[in-house]
Write a structure and sequence with these properties.
By secondary structure, this protein is of the alpha+beta class. It contains 13 helices and 14 strands. Strands 1, 4, 5, 6, 7, 8, 9, 10, 11, 12, 13 and 14 form a twelve-stranded mixed beta sheet that branches. The chain has a two-stranded antiparallel ribbon with strand order 2-3. Helix 2 runs antiparallel to helix 9 and helix 3 packs across helix 8. The longest helix has 44 residues. The chain is elongated and about 105 Å long.
C-alpha cells in the first residue's frame, strides 16, 4: 500500500536529515549565503545610491532644460567632449523670454565667474564662489528657495541695481548669526547690497554653486562682466516632465528663428536637458547592477554544484533508508519530493541568512554615502525565488537517482 506524506512531514524529514549532516549542510548553506549576500548587498547599496541621486536631481527640476552656446557630451569614465557655437547675446536671450508663449518659467543667465572672492569688512571667502547674473526666475529653475529676505523686484531688474542674493555658506562665513539684510559686500571689486539669503541646498556637481553663490540682476551683470563678448544661457522650466519633450521642440524652433537659421542649416546652439546627466548616471548604475548580478550568479552556480554533490552523497549514505521507505510503501514520487524539499530547505536557510547580511552590508554603504535606509523588496523576493530554483535544480538529479533505487538492493547496501 502506498504511503502518503504531507508537505509538513516532508519538511520535518528534510530538517531531520539536515541535523544529521550539520557540517556539510552548514558549509553549503554558507556558500549560498555568500552568493545571496553579494547579490543583495550590492543591489541594496545601488538602490540607495539611485534613490539619493534621484532626490538630488529632483531638486534641480526634472522638467527643465538649458539653451546655451555649447553642447556637452558626457561619457563617465571615458572623458567627454564639447562643441562650442557662436555666443548667445542678451538680445537673443531676452527676445526668447518675451516671445515664448508656452506656460513656462524662463531665466536668462550670465555666468560671470566661478572663482569669485566675496568680502565683508576684514572677512573674505576662498576663491570658489559662483557669481551669476539672472532674473526673477533663476531660483525656481535651479531648485533654490529664499531662506529669508526676498527675490529681485521688477525695478531692480529693469535698472540693474547693485543688489545681491547670497548662498547660505557665504552667510555663515561672513556674518555668522548677525543680521545681514541691507548690508554691503564686495564681490571682486564691485559692491552690492544684500536683499536675500538662499535656503541651504548643498553643493552642486563639480563643487560650484550650491551654497557658495552670489546672484545679481542680469542687467547689472552686463555692466560688471569684463568679458568683451559674453554668452548668455537660457534656463527653461516646463510645467511637468510629461510636457518636457514638446516644450524642448517648441523652444528649439523659436530659437532657430531668433538665430536666423535656414531650414537646411543645423542648430548652432546646444540644449542640455536636466535629466540627461541623470539618465547617464542611471546607465552607469545599471552597469554596476549587472556586475553585481554576475558576481552573485557565479557564486550561486558554485553553491548549486556543491549542493548537488552533497545531495548525491546523502543519497548514497541513505540508500538503506530509501530501501526501507520503499519497502513500507513509499512511491518514487514521494522519495523525489522528500529529497527536493531537503535541497530547497538547505538553500532557503542559506538564502535567508544571506539576505539579512546583504541588507546589513548594503545599508552600511548607503549610510556612509549619507543616504537613507533601504529595503529592496524586489531583490529580496527575487533572492528567495532564486534560492528555491537553485534547490530544485541541484536536488533534481539526486532526487531522481534516489527514486529509482531498487528497494531489495537498497536494503542489502552496507
Amino acid at each position: 500500500m502506498a504511503v502518503k506524506t504531507t508537505l509538513k512531514e516532508n519538511i520535518s524529514i528534510a530538517l531531520t536529515s539536515i541535523k544529521g549532516n550539520k557540517l556539510r549542510t552548514s558549509l553549503t548553506s554558507l556558500i549560498i549565503a555568500i552568493g545571496i549576500m553579494a547579490l543583495v548587498g550590492i543591489l541594496t547599496s545601488i538602490q540607495g545610491i539611485r534613490d539619493q541621486t534621484n532626490a538630488a536631481f529632483a531638486g534641480l527640476g526634472a522638467n527643465s532644460f538649458t539653451i546655451q552656446n555649447s553642447n556637452q557630451d558626457l561619457n563617465f569614465g571615458m572623458g567627454g567632449h564639447s562643441k562650442v557655437y557662436p555666443p548667445i547675446t542678451y538680445e537673443q536671450a531676452d527676445k526668447f523670454k518675451t516671445t515664448f508663449k508656452l506656460p513656462v518659467q524662463v531665466a536668462v543667465n550670465l555666468e560671470i565667474s566661478g572663482t569669485s572672492v566675496v568680502k565683508y569688512g576684514s572677512k573674505k571667502t576662498n576663491p570658489n564662489t559662483q557669481f551669476v547674473g539672472t532674473n526673477e526666475n533663476y531660483l525656481a529653475t535651479n531648485g533654490y528657495k529664499i531662506g529669508f529676505g526676498r527675490n529681485f523686484s521688477d525695478d531692480e531688474l529693469a535698472h540693474g541695481e547693485g543688489v545681491v542674493i547670497i548662498g547660505d555658506d557665504l552667510k555663515q562665513r561672513l556674518f555668522g548669526n548677525q543680521d545681514l539684510i541691507d548690508k554691503s559686500i564686495l564681490v571682486g571689486d564691485d559692491r552690492f547690497r544684500i536683499i536675500g539669503v538662499l535656503a541651504k541646498k548643498g553643493s552642486s556637481m563639480g563643487g560650484l554653486g550650491g551654497d557658495r553663490i552670489c546672484i545679481i540682476p542680469v542687467s547689472k551683470a552686463k555692466q560688471v562682466d569684463t568679458v568683451a563678448n559674453p554668452t548668455f544661457s537660457i534656463k527653461v522650466m516646463a510645467k511637468s516632465p510629461a510636457v518636457l519633450d514638446a516644450t524642448v521642440g517648441e523652444a528649439t524652433a523659436l530659437f532657430r528663428n531668433i538665430r536666423d537659421l535656414a531650414i537646411s542649416k543645423p542648430d548652432n546652439f546646444g540644449i542640455d536637458r536636466s535629466d540627461s546627466i541623470q539618465k547617464q548616471l542611471e546607465g552607469n548604475l545599471d552597469n554596476v547592477t549587472y556586475g553585481g548580478l554576475a558576481i552573485g550568479i557565479i557564486t550561486l552556480i558554485g553553491a548549486a554544484i556543491g549542493l548537488m554533490n552533497i545531495m548525491l552523497v546523502s543519497v548514497t549514505e541513505r540508500t538503506r533508508e530509501i530501501g526501507l521507505r520503499k519497502a513500507i510503501g513509499a512511491t518514487p514520487a514521494i522519495i523525489r519530493k522528500q529529497f527536493l524539499i531537503e535541497a530547497i530547505v538547505i538553500c532557503l536557510i542559506g538564502g535567508i541568512s544571506g539576505i539579512f547580511l546583504g541588507m546589513l552590508i548594503g545599508n552600511i554603504i548607503v549610510i556612509f554615502t549619507k543616504g537613507g535606509f533601504v529595503v529592496p523588496w524586489m531583490w529580496v523576493s527575487a533572492a528567495l525565488v532564486v534560492c528555491t530554483f537553485i534547490g530544485l535544480l541541484s536536488g533534481f538529479y539526486p532526487a531522481k537517482k534516489a527514486s529509482k533505487l531498487d528497494p531489495v538492493e537498497s536494503l542489502r547496501y552496507e
